[in-house]
Amino acid sequence: MVNISEENTPLALSVLDLVPVVSGKTPADSFKNTLDLAQEAERFGYTRYWMAEHHNMAGIASSATSILISHVAGGTSTIRVGSGGIMLPNHSPLVIAEQFGTLESLFPGRIDLGLGRAPGTDQLTAMALRRNLEGAGEDFAQNLAELREYLSADNAGARVRAIPGEGLDIPIWLLGSSTYSAQLAGLLGLPFSFASHFAPNLLFTALQVYRDSFRPSKVLQEPYAMACVNVIAADTDAEAERLATSLYMAFLNVIKGTRTTLQPPVDSMDSVWNEAERYATQQMLSYTFVGSAETIKNKMQAFANETGVDEIMAAGMIYDHDARVKSYKILSELQLQKNVAYIRS
């Protein structure tokens, strides 16, 4: 049963950066832009800045996620920095414990470890990463338990230890686009983030599963849920709609199985996609907020009210870096409220 609280509190906002490689530029340019955006996001008051592990994608440069977290954390001072997420089946739990133990030791109290169970790429590349696909995510819960054991102070007497990492308080989030990680996060009492920026269909179901299955833990006494959405904000609706065409083309490439860098915006998508492609792209991007501050504020507030999430993470695939920074500035000034508190009863 869901009860509604009348208490109004500010809604936490965070950034998901896919570290886009734009047409005509290099990953080195992307890394400079990422650090600049993180510094601006810190100034704008965002809660956390996450980067996502992807592989074999010409338009995304965040494959070495742990290294980029160090790059961003080293150039900022207060904002939390982390992974949205590390695809755990691609790595040994010990390696991730050591990497994030190193990050937490370098930047104490500022590192988040978000974990996913998808490969973050195509099957051929997943094979190159893992050397075999045995398990292919089915042993995620077991690998998660192993990782948490390495990070536990109780592991000090074990023959295999994570140094650094052992005994450090590194928040672990479970990320998902289905109900699997939602239920696991609930059972373990961990925070949960849903990838509604590209997989909208199961958002409400996953949030309900998470809340229904939640068991209080040393980490959390109450569920803490975050949803990721796409946000393209500008001074006018027309400007924002034009900027959003780069995002549409990026997702159209995913649907078509093509790999390109992030393309400059176009005046119209009519000559770029057919009707079936338009429908498929817009279905994936159902939770995409495009427009001026006035246009998107009420829609985003309605989303926060309907989902009851504790935090919204915004992805902003915008070709022009200055326009991207401005979009996040506009979003930060909307003063969204967490109007609806979901209380388990």
From TrEMBL:
Record-linked SUPFAM superfamilies: Bacterial luciferase-like
Entry GO terms, CC: cytosol
Entries under Gene3D superfamilies matching the protein: Luciferase-like domain (3.20.20.30)
GO molecular function, one term: oxidoreductase activity, acting on paired donors, with incorporation or reduction of molecular oxygen
Pfam families, per database record: Bac_luciferase
InterPro entries xrefs: Bact_Lucif_Oxidored (IPR050766), CmoO-like (IPR019949), Luciferase-like_dom (IPR011251), Luciferase-like_sf (IPR036661)
All residue ranges annotated as the Luciferase-like domain in the record: 25-310
Superkingdom field: Bacteria
Family membership: To bacterial alkanal monooxygenase alpha and beta chains.
Official protein name in the record: Luciferase-like monooxygenase
Organism encoding this protein: Daejeonella lutea
